[in-house]
Amino acid sequence: MSLKSVNSILGILExxxxxxxxxxxxxxxxxxxxxxxxxxxQTRPLSIQRDVLWVATSSAAWAQNLTFxxxxxxxxxxxxxxxxxIDIRLSTAEWKRSPITPKPQTVTPQEHPSYLGGxxxxxxxxxxxxxxxxxxxxxxxxxxxRSQGLPFCPHCQCPTxxxxxxxxxxxxxxxxxxxxDK
Length: 182
Description:
Strand content: 5-15%
Order of helices and strands: HHHEEHHEHHH
Number of domains: 2
Structural class: mainly alpha
Strand order of the largest sheet: 1-2-3
CATH class of the largest domain: Alpha Beta
Radius of gyration: 24 Å
Largest sheet: 3 strands, mixed
Number of strands: 3
Helix content: 40-55%
CATH architecture of the largest domain: 2-Layer Sandwich
């Protein structure tokens, strides 16, 4: 039986720890890079349980928005992790603000996937409508004018803002339906 020094044993343990670095530690290091700084400021990865990542969000709106894009986040994360994740669960339950947490960044309308640019400003809204039928006709006319020139959703063939197609590959309604079906 050979006796090894404490320093050599500690060195071996340190090497093994680096080899078997926990997936959550790796994920925490690359989280901001994968999701972006705006999203990283509103989220906090909590744990990985049975290959499912649990993430706290600052609000239910953030949780819902990220649920639509969780497949893309999973693809990016799985490229960086030794063990692939199978899903992401988002919730506000564990979100706690500390006094040193930076003030949350607000998302400008231009950053939202449904943003249509200056096109919305070109349509006036009539404030004096005589009846419900006339109000519906005005609404339908404005919606039709706004949708001219928009690309179509590949799933439902409805006019869709380009940002939604870029982010989810389908319109927001189809993204919500596809997400709830899974």
